[in-house]
Structures are given as C-alpha cells and as structure tokens.
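User: I'm writing a tutorial on reading structure tokens. Could you give me a worked example: one chain, its sequence, then its tokens, then a sentence or two explaining what the tokens reveal?
Assistant: Sure. Here is the example chain.
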Amino acid sequence: MTGSHKEKTITRRRAIAVTGGTAAAGGIAVAGYRAAFADETTATADAETSASASASSTGSGQCVLMSSVTEGPYYLDGALVRKDITEGKSGVPLTLRITVQDTTDSCAPVAGAAVEIWHCDAWGYYSGYTTANPGGSAPAESEDGSTANDKTYLRGYQVANANGVVKFETIFPGWYTPRTCHIHVKVHTGGEKEDGTYEGGTVNFTGQLFFDDDVAAEIFALEPYSQHSGSYTELADDMVYEDNGAAGGLLTLKAVHKKDPSKGYKGSIVLGIDPDAESTGAGSGGGGTPPSGTPGDAPTGTPPSDAPSDSASPSASASS
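And here are its predicted structure tokens:
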C-alpha cells in the first residue's frame, strides 16, 4: 500500500518531470524551527535529557539492541560536526533527540558516542547526489550540473553528552521511490573531532529512523513537500523497515502545535547498541534499486570551503 500525492497512477520507476524552481520556492522558512523551539529554556532541555537517559524503558525508549539495516547509496564521508544541519533547506522543523545506550551494560549511556545522521530534503534529494531522480514529479533540485553536488545539507554529527544524548535541528524528510520516509543514522565510538568532522574510531551501529504514516501524510500535504507529487511507500510496504517499532527505528513524534503541523515536530528515540561490536553498513533489508540518476559515480564539483576535503567520497554501498 502506498500513499498518494496528486498523481495516484504514477509508478515507482517513472522518470522525474522537471518543473523548475529551487528548494527556496514556496518553502517553509528554515528559521521556523528556531522560532518554534525558542521558548524552550536550558533548564527544560536539561531536564528532558536527564529523563531520557535515566529511563531504560519508556514508550519508544526501550533499551534493546537496535536492528542494524543497510547504509544505503547516499552516504558521504566527512560530515560536519554541527547541531543545525539544515544548511538553508526549507521544510517542517524537526528537533531530533537521540539517546545512545549500552545494551551490554545495564543500559548505561554511551557518553562520547558520535551520532551521524543524513536524510533527503523535502523533495527527496540528497546533498551530494542532487541529480538523482526521486521518482514521481518534483521540481529540479539544481539547474547547474557543475555545482549540483557541492552541497552538504542535511548531514552531520553530534557527540553524545554524559547522558548519551545528542540533539539535531533539521527538517522533516521528504520521500523518494521506492522508499518510505526515513533518516539514516550511524553511531561511532573511539574517534575524535578533527577539522570540523569526526575521524577514526569504529562504527558500532548503522540503521534508519522511521516516521508514522499518518504524520508523514499530513506533512507531505504542506509546502514545499506538496510540490513532489506521485506515490510514496508506507511503512508496511517498505523494503527496509522491519515492523518492530522502536527497536526497528520508529521515532516517537510530538507536534509542537497539535493543530498546526507546519510548526514542527520533536522526534526522539533510544538507540541500544553494543559498543564492542562493529557494523559494516550492510545490515538487513535488500534496499532494492536506487532511483535513476544515482549513485554509482562519485559526486562532481569541489566541496564547499567549510566542508572537509573528502566530503564528496561516497560509500560503496548500493542499497537504498
């Protein structure tokens, strides 16, 4: 079963119909999430962090070993250490709080763990792969092929505090065929921050975070998401999601304003990992064939000046 947007008969493999424009057109200003969460005091944030880390089993925060799944084809080395990963992208604000716990040690927080996330924008494009067709019909991400893949938006690291908690400020991801709405995540330990990124150490977990279908449908009816028409895949039909709730990466979502989803969401999850294990990024879930136009070849162009020189080196993985 799939959700539909405007064109209910569109197929998963249909080529992109370029309608022009950029992500700035008709978008919800990125500044929106700053305003949406401006009333959160430091004390409140600290209280949430402590509560999250101390609870070994609350709601979606069950301390269980997470299911490792495929890294996907859109990974880039050298993501920047930063809380705000939007880099000018428009969309519904999303504050993401991730708690990393050690399932081999009574759910102790993994302080110092580096959590890395990356996801597509409101129209289904990933930075570094902006010429990839997201399926359905969406505006072109870039008119200039020579610089289309220079951006590093919606990618970044945060290092966990003493409670094993990291926070990111981002936007609600869009979708691309044949996948459901999701965020990729890796947990690294043993490395260190260097030149604005995170170097060395071991990848202990590779997974994906998922969103409730009803919330996703509500978001995709808003601008700029609604400019991407076609059929998107729901959780039950996704090739990666294992239908096992929080252990499989399903986020707990809370609307900032219940009657106005455009104001944003807070998403949270506890990632239970084994800090002594190493994840190859292969994971489970076949992944399927990526949309036409990617990846397979390294992104072109020169990385922006604030990005590491190796940030345009893609993973060898070929799964979605």
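What the tokens reveal: Confidence is low (pLDDT under 50) at residues 4-61, 286-320. The two ends are 19 Å apart (CA to CA).
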